[in-house]
Structures are given as structure tokens and as C-alpha cells.
Write a structure and sequence with these properties.
The chain is mainly α. It contains 14 helices and no strands.
């Protein structure tokens, strides 16, 4: 079941990204980030009758205090990347999260990379190279230069690095509470934290009654709520690397949706690169 939950999380995060990208064409990044958290809460509250309210210890609050600024930073970078660059050129770079997990584990714990992990890193890197293989006619390093020129790809790389930290912190928070409680509590905490940022960056005029009548925001809320529930349910059933490796199939959904909804080009090479990246993620995370 963890596999199906992880795959469902991948699908719904991709659908949320599609609707968010449409919203970002008119709205600011902080406002859209706040909407993604806040509009999911009414749907998450439907699970409250099934929630067992845990006795929260100091560790839970310490982890949340560390997690919150990291999550907000990565979330804003993630949405800014979606806003300024094509889905098919940004979402695949989330595949570098397990690569960064290996690097941070080596630096902090001295853990070395085995053969499958090393091959996985090479495949993720090769997949990223293939994302811009159409520029190869301008030189062997041109696909790499194309990545550095695409600001959204760079922002997503930074977000991927932060996600390599928050994924494990979220797991610890669940272990010191429970899945359903954290699924409702954490988006509410993010919403409260993002509110002053949204007001400061977008202005008070952005917060008005029209927010309550925008159908697209409610669609974002439904998709985000489903993604959150599937994500944390999967995390509670299986180790984080396994769940993340399956959830990263969202990049394939993102590439396809980029072509369908936004008319993005070079989809074949990006799909090929995305598939290679997913294989690399599996080699890193599973074997």
C-alpha cells in the first residue's frame, strides 16, 4: 500500500503544480504558497473525527521549530521556480534530493556511497544533462550551460537540497505525534507562518473577499490536501528514501502536464532524461 500511496502523492502534487502555475501567472509567489497551505485545511479538517490527538513532547516542538523556516524557504523557492520556468525543466531537478541526501550523510556521518548509489548519482546527473540535449549542436557543454541559464532549474536544485533535510525531519515529527494529526497540524502551522510574509510581499490589497470566490484556489486546496494525506500516510508505512523514490515519479507527470496544459516543447528528450533520473533515484534510494 505504501507504493500506491506514494504514487498517488506524486500524481496529486503534479496536479497541484499545474493549477498553481496557472495561478502564479496572476498572483505573487507568497500568496500562492499561502493559498496552497490554507485552502487545503478545510478538506484536511474532514479527517479530524479520525485523528487521535497525541501527547506532544519537547522533541516534536523542537523539530517543528527547525522544520518551519526550512520548509517555508524551500516552498517559496519551489513555487518561484514553477512561476518563471517550464514545468518540464524545473520539476525533474527534484530528483537531486536523494543525491543531496547521500552528500549530507557523507559530510555529517562519514557514510560512503556504494556502487549502486554512485551509478544512481551518475544517472541522475546524466538525466539532467539530457533535459537540454537539443542544445548539443552548440557544444558538448551547452546542455550544462543551459541549466545554469534557466533560473527556475537552479532554484529547484536549492529547494531539492533543503527537501533532503526536511524529509527526514518530517519523519521524526510524525514519530513523535501521528500521521493524521501532523497532516492537519503542519499545513495550519505553515499557513499561519506564511500569512505575514504574504501580506508583507503582496500587500494588504491582495487579501480581500475575492480570495474566497476563486475556484482555482479551492482546486489547489483539494489536490494539496490529497497529496499531504497520501504523503504522510506513505511516510508512516515505509522508510523515507523508498517513499521519495516513488514520489519522484511526479517529475514524469509534470513533464507530460507541461506539454498538455502549457504547450512546452522538447518533451521527448525531457521524458527520456526524466526516466533516467528516476532510475538513478531508485538505485540511490532502494538498492
Amino acid at each position: 500500500m505504501w507504493f500506491l500511496y506514494s504514487l498517488s502523492a506524486a500524481l496529486f502534487i503534479s496536479l497541484t503544480d499545474v493549477v498553481s502555475k496557472k495561478a502564479l501567472s496572476k498572483e505573487s509567489t507568497p500568496l500562492t504558497a499561502w493559498v496552497r497551505c490554507t485552502y487545503s485545511i478545510p478538506f484536511l479538517l474532514l479527517t479530524v473525527p479520525f485523528v487521535e490527538f497525541p501527547a506532544l513532547d519537547k522533541t516534536f516542538f523542537y523539530i517543528c521549530a527547525i522544520l518551519l523556516p526550512l520548509e517555508i524557504t524551500s516552498f517559496l523557492l519551489y513555487l518561484e521556480a514553477l512561476k518563471i520556468s517550464p514545468l518540464s525543466l524545473t520539476l525533474p531537478f527534484l530528483s537531486f534530493t536523494p543525491v543531496f541526501l547521500i552528500i549530507t550523510s557523507y559530510l555529517t556521518l562519514g557514510e560512503s556511497v556504494d556502487t549502486s548509489g554512485f551509478i544512481g548519482i551518475l544517472m541522475v546527473t546524466a538525466g539532467a544533462y539530457l533535459m537540454n540535449v537539443h542544445t548539443l549542436k552548440h557544444g558538448l557543454l551547452e546542455p550544462v550551460r543551459a541549466i545554469t541559464r534557466e533560473r527556475g532549474s537552479l532554484l529547484m536544485l536549492i529547494a531539492a537540497f533543503i527537501f533532503s533535510i526536511t524529509s527526514n525531519l518530517g519523519k521524526i515529527a510524525i514519530q513523535h505525534s501521528n500521521t493524521l494529526f501532523f497532516s492537519v497540524f503542519y499545513p495550519a502551522l505553515l499557513s499561519l507562518s506564511l500569512f505575514p510574509i504574504m501580506i508583507f510581499k503582496s500587500g494588504k490589497e491582495s487579501f480581500n473577499k475575492s480570495l474566497l470566490t476563486r475556484k482555482g484556489f479551492y482546486i489547489i486546496g483539494i489536490f494539496q490536501a490529497l497529496e499531504i494525506l497520501f504523503h504522510f500516510t506513505a511516510v508512516a508505512l515505509i522508510e523515507v528514501p523508498y517513499m521519495i523514490s516513488v514520489k519522484r515519479t511526479s517529475l514524469l507527470f509534470g513533464i507530460i502536464f507541461g506539454a498538455v496544459f502549457f504547450g512546452e516543447t522538447h518533451i521527448r528528450e525531457r521524458l527520456a532524461g526524466g526516466i533516467i533520473m528516476i532510475i538513478g533515484v531508485i538505485l540511490i534510494s532502494v538498492f
